[in-house]
Amino acid sequence: MRHGFIRVAAATPNIRLADCIYNAEQIINIIETANKKEVGLLVFPELCVTGYTCGDLFFQDLLLKEAMGQVKRIAEATMDKKLITVIGFPYEHSKKIYNTAAVLQGGRVLGLVPKTSLPNYGEFNELRYFAQGPQKAIKVEFMGEELYFGSRQLFERSDIPDFVLGVEICEDLWIPMSPGNSHCLAGATVIANLSASNEIIGKSQYRRELVKSQSNRLLCGYIYADAGEGESTTDLVFSGHNLIAENGNILSEAEPFHDDMIINEIDLGIIVSERRRMNTYSGQGCDDYTHIKYSLSDDNYELKPYELIRRIDPSPFVPEGIMKREVRCKEIFTIQAMGLKARLSHVGTDCAIIGVSGGLDSTLAMLVCHEAFERMGLDKRGIMAVTMPCFGTSSRTYNNAIALSESLGASIMNIPIKDAVLQHFRDIGQDIDTHDITYENSQARERTQVLMDLANKYNGLVIGTGDMSELVLGWATYNGDHMSMYGVNSSVPKTLIRSIVEWFADSTDNAKLSEVLKDILDTPVSPELIPPTEANEYQKTEDYIGPYELHDFFMYYVLRYGFSPQKVYYLAKIAFAQKYSGDVLLKWLQVFYSRFFTQQYKRSCLPDGPKVGTVAISPRGDLRMPSDAKAKLWLDEIKHISL
C-alpha cells in the first residue's frame, strides 16, 4: 500500500449447501486469486462456509464441527499472504449457535464477530437457529486457540494506523443503529459486511443506496459481500450483489446473478481527511472495544505502489455523464442566481453593473444576472453591461461581449479606457512600451474604478466575475478585478464554469445566444492586457500560469482533503497519464503551491459570494488561512519527488 490506498475485494463463491469441504476449496481458490492481485482485504458472504439457507441442518452436530474445521483450513491457507480475509460460518459456543464472521490473516484466526441483529420476519427466521452474540468481546477457545468473540472488535494493522477494520453482518446494516456506527466512532475506517440478501423487485436499488448512505454518514470505506448461486432456491433467490463504497461513492458494483469478485481501492487518506475536518465526528462512549493488532512480515509492503484499479477523474469538479452534468450545472447556476437575487433585494436596487469582456467568467456572470432579474421580474435593461476596450482587446472578444449583452436584453455601455490609462501612465511615469505588471494592472484598476463609479451614479451593484481558480492562484489584480460588491463566481472553478456555459448554450431556446456562447467557449482564456504581437498572437493565460485543468485538479485535492504534494502528484500522474509528462506536472504543481501561499492576502478580503460546492475559499467560511504563511514545507517536498 502506498499513498493511503488499500485494495479491497468482495467475492461470492459458487457454493454447495452443507458441503463445507467444497465451499472451503472455492474460498481458498478465491483467496489465492485475490492475493495475486494484491488485495489487502477480502470479504466473503454470510455463512459462506456452509451456505446461508441450510435451515434445520444448522442443528446437525456434524455440520457445525465440519464448518469449524474448514474455517481452520481456510485460515491456514492465508499463511504467507498479504491480505486479511473475512468469512462467514455457524459457530457453536456454550451450546448456542452464532451467525459469525471469522477474521483471518497470516495463517490464523484473529477474532470472531457475531451477528447482532437476527431477522425473524418475512422470509427470515434466524432466531430459530442462532443466538445473539455478545457485544463486548470475550475470550473463547476455538480449535485449540484462545481468541476474542464479540461484535465490538477492531482489527488494526500495526504498521498502517489508518487501516482499521470493523465487521458487521447483513441485517446489522439495515437497522437504525448498526454496529458499523459504533465501529466507526471507535476508529474503524473500513467496514466489512458479510451478507445473504435475497433478491426481490427493487431491492438491489435500495441495497445500493443503503450501502452508499452508510459509507457517507460514517465517512468510511464499505465492502458488501452478498450470497449468490448455490443457495437454496426453494423460496428465495440470491444474486451476489457485491458493492464497494467510499464516503458516499459506489466505487465498484457486481452485476447481479453473476457470481464474481469485484476489486477496487479505498483511499484511506480521504476518510481520515474528512473525519479530521468534521469536528462533530465524535467517538464518545466507544471505549469498550477490543483492538486486535496484526502486522505483516514484509515491512516494505506498505511502500509498494499499486497500479490503481480505480479511476482518478482528471476533472473532479465536473460530474461524468451528460445527465449528471446537466443536473449539477443547473443546481449551481440556480444557487448563484438566488444568491444574487437575495442581495439585490436586500440592497433595494434594480440595477446590476457588470464588466463584460467576451470571456468565460463575465459570460457566466451575465447569465446569472439575467436569471436573477428574471426571477425578480425586473426589466433586463437594468443589467448594465459595460465594455471597456483597451490595448489588448481583440475584435472577437469585443464583438462577443456586445452580442451577448444584446441577446440578453441588457443595457450596453461602451467606455474605452485607453486615454484614461495613458493619462495615468503620464501621472505615475510609466513607460507605455514597458509591458510589465504596472502596465497590466493599471488597466484592471481603471476598469474597476469605472464600474464602481457607475454603481454610485445609477444606485447599482457591481457584480464580480472572477472565478475560484483565479482567486486560488491569485490571478487577479488587487483592488482591480479582485474587487466587487457581490462575486457570483467566487466559488466556481474554471473547469466548472466552462461546463455551465456549455450546458446553457445547449439548453437555451435563444439561437443567437447559443451561437455567441459557443464562440466564447472556443476563445482561448486571456486577460487581454498586452497588445497582440506582430504574428497576431494574443496573451494566453494558461501560457503564464499553466493549464486550468491541472490547477483545478491540484486545488481539489489540496483544499478538499489536504493531501501532500507527493500524493497530489501521484494522483495527477494517473489522471493525466496520456496528456502531461511527470516533469510538466511537477512544474505546474510548484507554481500552484507558490501562488497559493503568496496570494492569500487577496483572498483574505474577498467580497461576498455564494458557496456552491465542498471546496470554497471565503475567508469567512472555508479557508481561514494566514496571509503570511510560508510554502517551504510543501515546496521542499516537491523537490524530492521522483519522476
Write a concise synopsis of the structure shown:
The chain is built from 20 helices and 20 strands. It is of the alpha/beta class.
Fold blueprint:
Layout: E1 5-11, H1 20-36, E2 41-43, H2 61-76, E3 84-93, E4 96-105, E5 108-114, E6 138-142, E7 145-149, E8 153-157, E9 164-169, H3 171-174, H4 179-185, E10 190-195, H5 203-217, E11 221-226, E12 243-246, E13 249-253, E14 261-267, H6 268-277, E15 290-294, H7 322-347, E16 352-355, H8 360-376, E17 383-387, H9 395-407, E18 411-414, H10 418-428, H11 437-458, E19 461-464, H12 468-473, E20 486-487, H13 494-507, H14 511-521, H15 541-545, H16 548-561, H17 565-575, H18 582-598, H19 600-603, H20 632-639
Parallel strand pairs: 1-2, 2-3, 5-7, 8-15, 9-10, 10-11, 16-17, 16-19, 17-18, 19-20
Antiparallel strand pairs: 1-14, 3-4, 4-5, 6-7, 8-9, 11-12, 12-13
Task: Tag the structure with descriptive keywords.
2 domains, 643 residues, alpha/beta, eight-stranded mixed β-sheet, elongated, Nitrilase/N-carbamoyl-D-aminoacid amidohydrolase, seven-stranded mixed β-sheet
User: What is the general shape?
Assistant: elongated
* CATH homologous superfamily caption of the largest domain: HUPs
Say what the CATH topology of the largest domain is: Rossmann fold
Instruction: Please give the CATH class of the largest domain.
Output: Alpha Beta
Helical run tally: 20
**Reported CATH architecture of the largest domain:** 3-Layer(aba) Sandwich
| Count of individual domains | 2
Radius of gyration: 30 Å
Topology, number of strands: 20
Distance between the termini: 19 Å
Task: Report the average pLDDT across residues.
Answer: 94
Q: What structural category arises from helix and sheet content?
A: alpha/beta
Strand content: 15-25%
Low-pLDDT segments: none
Helix content: 25-40%
Strand order of the main beta sheet, please?
Answer: 6-7-5-4-3-2-1-14
